[in-house]
Please model this.
Amino acid sequence: MRKLTHYYSLTPEWQLNVAEQLSTELIDNKLIVVPNHIGDGFFYFSQIMEGISVVYADLLTKEPLKIIRQRSDNELFIFHFDLSEHVNLIKINNVDYEIGSFNQLDLAILDNQIESAFKPAVGERTIALRLLIDKKLLHDFILKFSTSENYFAKSKSNKKAFYHYGNIDSNSILLIQSIKTKSIYDLSFDSFLKGISLKVLGNFFNKFYEPKNKNLQLTDVEGQALEKTKNYLTNNLYGPFPSLTFLSGMAGMSESKYKSLFKKHFNDTPKNLFIEEKIKLAQKLLRSGEYSTLTAIMYELNYTKLSYFCTKYFEILKRKPTDDFVKKNATKKVT
Amino acid sequence: MKIIEHRYSADLEWVEHYAAQIGGKIEGNFITTSEDFQTGTRYFLDCGDGIIAYYLNVEYHRNFRLIQKNLNQDFVGFYYNLTEGEATVRSGHFMYNVGRWQYNLSVIDGALESRYEVLKGSKTFALCIFIKKSMIKAFLKRNNIIIENIDTLIDSKVNTIVRFDRMSNESFHVLNDLKKLEVGGAVFDLNLRGTVHLLISNYLKKIATKRVIIQTVNENDLAKIISVQMYLIEHLGEHFPSIHFMAQMANMSESKFKSLFKKITGDTANAFFMENKLQLAKELLEKKQLTVSQISDHLHFTNNSYFASKFREHFGLSPKAFYKQL
Model:
């Protein structure tokens, strides 16, 4: 197995050593073309702005290759976006982590204080975009987004300063895919790569700091259907519970889908919501002073047992029906 | 008509003066104005390397005339202007209509005094990029881009840069993506910088391929081709209308139409149509309101698998996978 050791810095000088090991030369301080006997492809490096640089690799190896990244003095985070359609390996602390768009885990964030090794699969085209970012800069970012869930802080408290984040968002995949189609010899390539890198980073932070409660995304149609059934429930409190089959039919969904969506959207099951609304209505009726007995109200609301009604009432409002009850004839006597 | 005299430059010196002229204030990177004359967002950002980006998304409630007289003339302005409404740029003896369906990319030398007029009710979405001339050279050098006789190109005594053009479809979509984002904050700044780089890249690509400069095309023909483009964009949900039909619309022979369309947009009519259709499909997917097959039907693809394969061919990712990882 051929081994290649290197370190990263934000400035181009680290490439010299890599080029030497590959016995090839560094072109324009940015491009290393992999020699033919090892494989087919290149590494492209560019400084995007103060504190951010990018390495883009597109290669097809002919023999096993192990790219060992040594720790360096610069304080960097490495964002590794892997768009290969097969599994590559990243080795950290002697544990192999699979990465590649094939198994949907295609983004890794590495701390450059910890050594890692990257092993591209042999005979397959590996596409990877690595953003090297000064920790100071990320610190600024973190401060700017003062979110309670701050995972960089979390990863520091972790023993391993490594975090396997999971997957890239679709828009970033499209952006990285679009690099594939460009030629690195085009004079527009450098700006293009920089632009893409910045946007990918923007997408990452955007996704990362987005509040998690956005997870539940209903389409408008579904939302409307749920509202409709909820309105139906609140408008028909005097009757019995209309059954899930009926409600899901009304919403045009399967029962299980309806139930789970309803629960997510209103934080309650349809039945519970129905009972709660019913009891609230009961309280209103009790206080209205238009009924002479509790039983009358109970029947009005389609309950058959007073004790059951009382229990439910207490369960929800934490008080007894009699506490709220204003008797009809009682009010008459007063007047 | 409100007349405003202002200046731009490739540093942030102009901002204060500009804000004062339009009766606004600077808040962070925003320029806020009173809502009477115009509503919307104005945002500026120093992108480093002597590049300033100025982002506008405003609606004008009065007619405006903006006269640009620059004190420091050492820069070139790239104006990506997607105004819906009527706007013109005038300088010396020439005048051009600008906006989304007119010349939507103008490159104007800072040494030139120009007049920008925009009518009431127009909605402007624009990105202006100001680049120091000295930096153009340095920028090209740093990014290892070699253009011959660059010195004469950027010397305003020899060569005043004025160019009216239409941006490529790719640039348009890059801007459109930017428009979707909430303005302000570090994430937006990253995206704005990224967008500036992509636009520059696109522009360089255009220079490199030496595509025809649109100013040289007969104005009448240009207007017709653009109107066909507009028609295509407005009818993305339907089938491709056939070259025969479009050529008739443009009053040209089919072969003339085809070659002219390609010259101006850089794409064949069919490719242009399909690309925009797929972009629309992508936007629909992003909204998460319709399923893949609903979108495929909505956009009149013959069947889902054809849609999926086209989507994959264009974006390198199937619609389902795209949807899943949003």
About this structure: The interface with chain B takes residues 28-30, 46, 49-50, 104, 140-141, 144-145, 167-171, 173-174, 177-178, 180, 186-192, 194-199, 201-202, 205-206, 209, 217, 219-221 of chain A (CB under 8 Å). Chain A has a mean pLDDT of 81.
